[in-house]
Amino acid sequence: MAAEKSIHDYDVVLVGAGISGINFAYRLQERNPELSYCILEGRHEIGGTWSLFKYPGIRSDSDLYTFGFPWRPWEEQTSIAEGARIINYVKESAAMYGIDKKIEYKHHVNGADWSTPAKRWTLDVTANGSEQKTYRSKFLLMCTGYYDYDEPLKAQIPGIEDFKGTVAHPQFWPEDMDYTDKNVVIVGSGATAITLLPNLAAKAAHVTILQRSPSYIMSVPAQDGIEKIIRKLTWWSKPLEHKLIRLKWILVPFLLTCFASTFPNACRKMFSKAIQAQLPPTIARDPHFNPSYNPWEQRVCFCPDGDFYACLRNGTGSVETGVIEKVTPNSIKLTSGAELHPDIIVTATGLKVRFAGGMKVTLDKEPLNMAEKFIWKGVMLEDMPNAAFVIGYVDASWTLGADATAQLMCRILKQMRKEGVVEVVPRRTEAEAKSMIEEPVLKLTSTYVRKAKDVLPKAGSTGQWRARSYYFKDIWTAWFGDIRTGLEWVRGV
User: Fold this and answer.
1) Do 202 and 294 fall into the same domain?
2) Whole-number mean pLDDT of the chain?
3) Which among 300, 328, 347 is the end of a domain?
4) Can you give the pLDDT at residue 1?
5) pLDDT band at residue 444 under the 50/70/90 scheme
6) Is residue 278 located within the same domain as residue 403?
7) Neighbour count for residue 47 (Cβ, 10 Å)
8) Residues 337 and 227 in one domain
9) 0.70 exceeded by pTM
């Protein structure tokens, strides 16, 4: 006879103990302390991305003053930080507020079913690889990020299986791999590749980035002049210092992205000039650093104190732009006729996008295809009751979007309790259903995002269904915006 599943009841279940999940838990404790909650985490520890990735030099591609939590300021005087420091910061933050005591580790959510009669979610969970558990909650918060932790994006590299050297993917970096005095080729041109080059170059004989097309790579100082001035002027108040520096990091990227969207050609020229100033005479900006797109149509890569460009200038790193014809047992041949001879190939070709951690969702036992649905305010999925998803920004820190989501949902939860509402569910009107034009949730032209079209839900062209835009608007909406239109509120009997 099969063992009976243990059942655990909560007001709210959060899935994922990365930076989004920890932030959401804090907001719940702060604003809805009457609600019981737990966090289900599939891995063995806190941290999400920062726990999973172990490649050399892994670091944030956003500043920590906004990527960090607004309720626990980043104290260090450097904006870009390594993965180990970030995960320590997240763990310390969770412990400081007792959030770590609410986490169930190695708890993988297989599926979630909404019961309309019971007005609650039932989650099928596998704990520690084999134990079957059931969790029930009135509300479900998905803090699972946007990519597949178990499987990387498979790059189409002809002949890669014939290569006799080492092939590594950054998502599953071999901890015992020795690249000392080896020739390394990194296939890819995104943030991971830009991070890897200077860190591998410290030991390797030479590191080459092999890219099909270039990215924007901007150097940022560990501490800029504005921050130094703020610290001098606010020596008497650490809280004020933190607020002003954080505001600066919210405001400056916002103004830059506005400038880029309004004056794309001028922004492109500005970026090109800054890049040219970093390059050695031996490396031409065109084609290696002349992207075919405008800034922020794909993510802009940042390198602290120009460490990426320093490697190009001292000769330990280089860039090759071209299309791979085939990989042989000991070389990479390009369609241009060029040939590379690596000992190690690193496939930094992007992430495999996955929504809601890949869990199966059903409504009254009927499967819900999330990719067919529109998303309300970038937070709640059409026809899916009492559930929210965390989707951050692609042109600013992820955490800014995560916190705007958390504050909006805490406000909705508070209003539900005040009015005796047991169910809220996004619904499009008949007119909206007929006229709505589909738009992407993530407004990027990157290959890995384009490949995820059939995985992600849809944003709409009008009303509450538009994709989220920028932090100032979203946080205002979280505090004061319309939470009625497009939502069906169902009171308890």
Assistant:
1) yes
2) 93
3) 347
4) 38
5) low
6) no
7) 23
8) yes
9) yes
252 plus 332 within the same structural domain:
yes
Contact 180, 204 (CB under 8 A): yes
318 forms bridges with which residues in the sheet? 208
Cα 41 to Cα 21: distance, rounded to the nearest angstrom: 9
Q: In CATH, what number is assigned to the domain containing residue 385?
A: 3.50.50.60
Regarding whether 383 and 336 lie in a shared domain, the answer is: no
Same domain, yes or no: 223 and 247: yes
Q: What is the rounded average pLDDT of the residues 372-401?
A: 94
Distance from C-alpha of 252 to C-alpha of 289, rounded to nearest angstrom: 24
For the packed helices 471-480 and 238-262, what is the interaxial angle rounded to 10 degrees?
A: 120
Inter-residue contact 205 to 216 (CB < 8 Å): no
Rounded distance, CA 94 to CA 33, Å? 16
Give me the number of domains the chain comprises: 2
Which H/E stretch holds residue 367?
strand 366-367
Q: Which residues, 6+ apart, have CB-to-CB distance to 66 below 8 Å? A: 246, 249, 250, 396, 397, 399, 400
pLDDT tens-digit map of 87-137: 999 999 999 999 999 999 999 999 999 999 999 999 999 999 999 999 999
